[in-house]
Amino acid sequence: MTNPQGCRLEIEVGERTLVRLSGELDAPDTRSARKLLTAYIRAGTTIVVDLAGVTRVDPSGLAALVDLHELARQQDSRLVVVTGEGGGPAHRALEAAGLTGTVDVRQVLMDG
């Protein structure tokens, strides 16, 4: 799925659901991604959100990650956010907002 501004979303479903986002994550993209991820979380799936390819995360994207993290916790599911090695834009945005201690944030995708 791609919006006119170029945010791309790819999904791989298996033992866990891997959602890769790339481009700019802004309000319209956040609404679409939140709706999709909510359905997977409610199904009890572990969700890995790969933001390594994201070039910008606006405040709506950060708020969605917090909300989804809380929903996953309530549903006995799990949400993991991968930001990519080297502290890219997504990692810096999460760090600046003080969310690296709230949301399960990792720089690299690992099994488990």
UniProtKB/TrEMBL annotation:
Q: What is this protein called?
A: STAS domain-containing protein
Q: Which CDD domains match?
A: STAS_anti-anti-sigma_factors
Q: Where is the STAS domain?
A: 18-112
InterPro entries with a match to the protein in the record = MlaB-like_STAS, STAS_dom, STAS_dom_sf
Q: Per UniProt, what is one Pfam family of this protein? A: STAS_2
Q: Out of the domains of life, which is the source?
A: Bacteria
What species is this protein from? Pseudonocardia halophobica
What the entry lists under SUPFAM superfamilies is as follows: SpoIIaa-like
